[in-house]
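PROTEIN SPECIFICATION:
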Amino acid sequence: MPTTNAYLDPTNVARWRTRLMYKGMEVNGQLTALLARQNATLATIKLPNEQEPGETREEKLRRYLKQVIAAQRRLDSDAYGKCQTCGTLLPLGALDDAPWLEECGPCAARSSSVALPF
């Protein structure tokens, strides 16, 4: 069945799959270090949103890893690259920058007090 998502050409999918894999490994490594009580820094990780009120570093890393894994699963479907709330296509540049994005700017603004990077 042909896709209705023009973004899902093989070149884009391969690029995003690679970025998601490396980002997942990076976040998992930081989470592992944090849980082992080693010096884990979040400074090198571009987080999708700022910390939610009362959210610990561990919770932030777990939330971020969950977003990366969910994006990896969506990448194999027509849902990838679409806002998970309203269904509009996310900006291609934003996906290149953060392939784990789940919502467009307007939907993210409505669901959170923190704006996304686009």
